[in-house]
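Why do we bother with holo predictions? Because pocket geometry can differ from the apo form. Keep that in mind while you read this record for NAI.
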Amino acid sequence: MYDLAIIGGGPAGYTAAERAAAGGLNTILFEKANLGGTCLNEGCIPTKALLYSSKLYHYAQTGAKYGVGADNVRFEYDKIVARKNKIVRKLNAGIRSKMKENNVTVITGFATVASATEEVVTIACNGETYEAKTMILAAGSETTIPPIKGVDTAEFWTSREALEAKEVPASIAIIGGGVIGMEFAGLFNQFGSQVTVIEMAPEILPPIDAEIAAMLRQNYEKQGVKFYIGAKVMEVKTGAVVFETADGEQTLETEKTLLCVGRRPALKELGLEALNLERFRNGIAVDAQMRTSMKNIFAVGDVTAFSMLAHTATREAEVAVNTLLGKDDAMSYKAIPGVVYTYPEIAGTGKTEQELQREGTAYKVLKLPMTFSGRFVVENEGGNGLCKIITNEAGAIIGAHMIGNPSSELITIASLAIEAGWDVERLKTLVFPHPSVSEIFKETLFA
Ligand code: NAI
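The structure, written out:
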């Protein structure tokens, strides 16, 4: 009998397996496809590989602003995709060898829970059964296909097919101006597609700071992306999208359509119905130790339908394993950084103004254009950006939101301040390297 069975080999599952095995638990991991999950195989990593190539192409095209010209700048999309695939294979092999080093038993196949008591969980996979004292559910999420007319018959892409595209489409309609929509809008626009985004909400990127989301939209509009916000998609056809705005119904003809209106926990056919685990939204409810309503079963990552980010999943996995190993640990969602890898990048952590307004909590805002950072000006000719720090009435930092490069690398500073309970006066005393874009935090505090 194994000490621990893990279903799902994404960031949540493989982190749990590595930490548990290193902590002395006899661990078995089930993965239906490739280790690394959505994040490595068809999400975070492959998109960033493609986006990096698009960024280099952009720099080469716009270098003249910095006094560096290049003629006949071109890209070869098949080579860009081949490089992306090579990176995925390399990182995949890295995870596989980590599992081996730690003596984790890895089974490739679709696992289902055959039965479970609070003493033993029996898992069926590839015609065999396996028993474990405890289980971590880390089965991840899948693309939501909304019940829009035509989705059963029309051809469209999800992020999976968009990543596998061999060529850049001449035009693409993106349904859903969320995180996936914005990253692909940037990518395809950069490589010359006519990109149109159709978003149902009144602004793109709904959970993100609304002022910053609007700045990105305006920036993208300048780069040639067309937006319909507050637009309701009525029908998806092969080569067209029918949608309704305040101006009436419109039909947009398009070479490709990308549907990205969210993801939902992948819980189907796992054999969980009989366990009657308590639910949260469309996922599994957990406590601060990531334990489900059955004390020997934990759930981490996207199956909890909570934060749905790879880095959250990794930390949740650590909390679950530490709990299994008898160490005190608890999950904190207070300062989870969120990044949208657009150009310019967006990053945020902690509370947004919109959340605080909904809660009816009083707050203060300090904000400053990114151009107050010398390094930002040096490296972003003609670029704009914003840094916004949110405090409670006593001055403690409770949120930070920014647009401008390289926000993805800076946001952890604000997360650290929030987790540590620092207030404005304390953060003001921190010494930042000069010149660095990170200094914008300090400048904002004195604004
Ligand atoms: P999302 O939840 O970020 O955005 C979906 C968007 O679609 C929302 O703006 C919503 O208002 C809109 N929408 C919903 N129904 C619609 C309809 N019928 N017509 C038009 N618009 C509609 O979901 P997305 O972009 O699919 O991403 C899925 C998940 O992947 C997210 O939960 C995110 O956590 C994760 N992800 C994270 C990334 C990152 O951290 N950089 C990158 C990509 C994905």
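The chain has a mean pLDDT of 98.
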